[in-house]
Amino acid sequence: MPIGLPDQIRGPGRAAEQAARPHLGARRGSVFSIPAREAVEAGRGPFRDRATRLAAYRESCRLARLRSAPPSAVSIQGFGLFGKILEIDDLLRADPTLAERVLESHPELVLTGLAGAPCRYPKTVREGAAERRAILLAHGLPAGLAAAPRPCGAAEDDRLDACALLLAARRAQAGRIRRFPDPPERDRYDLPITIHA
Prior knowledge:
It is a single chain. 47% of the residues lie in helices and 9% in strands. The radius of gyration is 17 Å and the shape is globular. The protein folds into 2 domains: 9-102 and 180-185, no CATH class; 107-173, no CATH class. The protein is mainly alpha-helical. The strands form 2 sheets. A two-stranded parallel ribbon has the order 1-2. Strands 3-4 form a two-stranded antiparallel ribbon. α5 crosses α8 and α6 (126-138) packs parallel to α8. The chain has 8 helices and 4 strands, in the order βαααβαααααββ.
């Protein structure tokens, strides 16, 4: 989940997303553009019904356009993440010391770093799952974890994403991780705006 929400956006998303995308080749579209804080906060939820959700989405888009240059709306996929983004934001603002241990990462950027090149296939096709599984196993993912039954409701690409983030957490703990950008920007609450991979 994205951590750190700027008050203004310059270009296609936060500086962290802009720094990460060039390393991902054909997978760069997997990095969503997260809008300015005010637009994210407008999509907090919970929503009483579909109409309230739609009204919140429209307000988020309006605020995103006002707070970005060039003006940019919000993707529906990005909007779907806002509630979770704000849960993490609330947690880190309540205890800023957690920002040293709770890091933003991105599975495709992690996999690119491990493999030395972006994945060739989309993650939702059989070849993409096999490619990602092989990369993860080659870099220390326990074979039993890769072969275990998926959690209820999780697709295989969700599990592989989680496994990539597990390896990123291990690397971060060992001090072997890059930040995009480095040094990170910070938001008004001093939360770092950087993707670790």
